[in-house]
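Journal club prep, notes for RB
We'll compare a predicted complex against what the paper describes. Inputs for the adenosine-5'-triphosphate case:
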Amino acid sequence: MPVQPRRAALTDSATETVRLSGVGFGYADGPGVLRDINLILAAGSFHFLTGPSGAGKSTLLKVLTLAERPTAGRLTLFGEDAGEAPRSALPRFRSRMGVVFQDFRLLDHLSAFDNVALPLRLAGAKRDSYADNVVEMLDWVGLGERMDDRPPTLSGGEKQRLAIARAVVNRPDLILADEPTGSVDAAMGERLLKLFQSLNRLGTTVLIASHDETLAAASGASVLRLEGGRLSGGAA
Ligand SMILES: Nc1ncnc2c1ncn2[C@@H]1O[C@H](COP(=O)(O)OP(=O)(O)OP(=O)(O)O)[C@@H](O)[C@H]1O
């Protein structure tokens, strides 16, 4: 029986940030990792994605960031078919996303300031127009005193906070974050959650993959659970 996509809120195509219909994925020569995933993330909704280690949370985020393409089913982002979009279309989809990678992917030769400024520079903004915004974001994540330092001199938690500041600085339409509080203490985890919630109140759709079930429950967000490659949970 075909499964209806889970609905997190309104499902009019104009208000959907993400739609997965029967999406499957497996790495080359490996077993299937994602099976028949049906999911709608309404524009402006907030979700946690939980599940045991190896369940496929990072893989699902890789499919959503178009680092991997679905091997079955249909993926729509911002109302457009993305699963089979040509490579030349990928920057257009990605320019609307802020991604926090599990391994941070900071540029070691750039200062903390320049790492955070990168998405704005790539979007063509001039330094004068974004400098205050970058400083404000670094202050928010507690790195206001470290803006001239390079990533190799930062602790794991500081790198994580820097990666989050970079992902959110240009107010993307969609934030995809893989374990964004995995390297920080509980108080900083709550502060970072507030940052994601503030952006969400401004209209950004947020999906956070996390082992931290306590933080997920405290957030009041819908909690999606991935297990054995299948998705359950979320708002009905
Ligand atoms: N590049 C890859 N090539 C082949 N198999 C992979 C690759 N990356 C992940 N896998 C496999 O896919 C499955 C899902 O991994 P994934 O990293 O998505 O899980 P996860 O839920 O994010 O785990 P964790 O919570 O430990 O980060 C695992 O069995 C893993 O071994």
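Talking point for the session: The radius of gyration is 17 Å.
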